[in-house]
Amino acid sequence: MSAAPPALDPVPALNRSLKHLQKAPVRIVHLGLGAFHRSHQAWYTQHSPDAAEWGIAAFTGRRPDAAEALSGQDCLYTLVERSAGGDSFEVIGSIVEAVDGADISRLSQLVAARETAIVTLTITEAAYGLAADGTFDAGATAVSDDLRALSAAASGGAGTPTTPLGRLVLALAGRMDSGAGPVAVVSCDNLSANGDVARRAVLGMASVWGPGLVEWIGRNVSFVSTSVDRITPRTTEADIAEVAEQCGYRDSSPVVAEPFRNWVLSGDFPAGRPRWEDAGAVVVDDIEPYENRKLWLLNGSHSILAYAGQLRGHATVAEALADPLCRKAVEDFWDEAASNLQGEGLDIPRYRQALLERFGNARIAHRLAQIAADGTTKLRMRSVPVLTSERANGRSGSGSALMLAAWIDYVGTAPDLQDPLAAQIRAADALDGSDRVQALLRLVSAGLADDPNIVSLVQGLCGSFAANPAATATTTLI
Ligand code: CS2
User: Fold this and answer.
1) N or C end of the chain: smaller count of CB under 10 Å?
2) CA 180 – CA 183 distance, rounded (Å)
3) Which domain holds residue 47?
4) Is residue 61 located within the same domain as residue 210?
């Protein structure tokens, strides 16, 4: 019997050979300690030339597990870079503290510290409390609970927010009181104009604290917009076993990602930032063209594959892309999206070609079920703007309408639905015919649901992805 490999430890050899793994002081606070943060912002921070000055304290969302696992190995973890040709391994040490998101006193302490210059967010699209018309939805249950909690805390009572933005607002109030000065909040979620969305949501939450905090945020908090990109599937037991086998230590929390990565940022960092641009990040004045290119071409086609692919019996992005029906839906949507993308140097043909290669990397088992979550919020960014613009230009918009039709068919078959509007989806799904299509569309965009021509266009496209018996058989065999 072979002995179990030793636990991942900041063993002296590791620290000596890679000096930048020494613990840097906390200057970045992150909300949303998940695989994507660890493959993306933590990677860029580690690869910045001034990494020794910029440590990250990362807070989990709903559960403490990831923080506990990472703390148990001194916050070090292995990034497995998985290309079509093989894997390479790197230990990441830029996260220096991993904390349960419910530990609001530690969050407040760190955000109130003068050394903290940046708060980054990967809290999911759905956590920004966006209503279907893009405004901040103060009526959503989690948001209104937090507004009550913040209001109680503001008047000196007991109030504990539970959403990431509610927690952030409480912590920002602490920074205002401590006089620690300006700070940058950097959204790294897949939303268009994510800095503006974050500003609206934070100010919406802060309004119950009183005008003092709203004014302070207006003067002291810069909301940076970013476009983030790196395909990072959920870690599996097989990944954990592979790291043990290849690296000779046991890592409870490795993260697997494709070799490609991209980060475009736009906005001010009043208290400084790492030199992320020296690690390949791009700083621009106008982020919109980059953001739309990524949100529509990459994330939009991901959503098509997630819904159409699962209807056809596929389980991963690579499997779905190999299905000619799904591939055609992607290419048609790309043609449509491309005619709405303007900007110097976007090089759409090359970007599309690269996406085909990235999605086709079958060694990355990117589960369609993972991408399918939170459809109502995602489709608002990925399909609605293209469809609206196509219609305004007198074209049919059938490529983006097909994404909506695939989602509508999918919600009718999905056994468990992960979506902030799951209950409303179930209620709408119980209706029939065009009433059903219209009610489901309304959850994504009232503007689309109010246009009878769009409702009938989408209804006509429903049923386009009948199950493919061959795919179902293959998937079952795996
Ligand atoms: C995906 C994204 O789950 C999803 O919705 O489209 O997580 C996608 O993999 C990343 O944005 C890639 O950068």
Assistant:
1) N
2) 9
3) 16-283
4) yes
- Number of structural domains the chain divides into: 2
CA distances for 38 relative to 43, 136, 276, angstroms: 7, 28, 15
Per-residue pLDDT reduced to its tens digit, 119-147: 999 999 989 988 877 788 888 888 999 99
Ligand 1 centroid to Cα of residue 299, in Å, is 6
Residue nearest to atom 13 of ligand 1 (CA): 229
* pLDDT over 60 (residue 454): yes
Locate the ligand 1 atom nearest the alpha carbon of residue 370 and give its number: 3
Tell me the helices (H) and strands (E) count for the chain, helix number first: 24, 11
Ligand 1 pocket, residue 262 CB under 6 Å: no
Tell me, yes or no, whether 436 lies in a domain.
yes
- Which of 266, 283, 300 is the C-terminal boundary of a domain? 283
Closest CA to 123 of 46, 31, 58: 31
Q: Is residue 9 part of a domain?
A: no
295 with 272, same domain: the answer is: no
Indicate whether 433 belongs to any domain.
yes
Same domain membership, residue 230 and residue 152: yes
Mutational pocket test of ligand 1: of 122, 229, 230, 231, the residue with most ligand atoms within 8 Å of the beta carbon: 231
How far is Cα 35 from Cα 57, in angstroms, rounded to an integer? 15
CA 302 / ligand 1 centre spacing (Å) = 7
456 Cβ contact partners less than 8 Å away, ≥ 6 residues apart: 434
Q: Is the CB of 358 under 6 A from ligand 1?
A: no
57 within some domain: yes
**348 with 370, same domain?**
yes
Q: 258 CB under 6 A from ligand 1? A: no
Residue 475 pLDDT class (50, 70, 90 cuts)? very low
The tokens for 49 are 């030339």
* Nearest ligand 1 atom, CA 299: 6
**190-239: pLDDT as tens digits:** 999 999 999 999 999 999 998 899 999 999 999 999 999 999 999 999 99
CATH code assigned at 346? 1.10.1040.10
Please tell me whether residues 117 and 164 are part of one structural domain: yes
Q: How remote is the CA of residue 232 from the centroid of ligand 1, in Å? A: 8
Q: Tokens 């599309």 correspond to what residue?
A: 352
C-alpha of residue 371 to centroid of ligand 1, in Å = 7
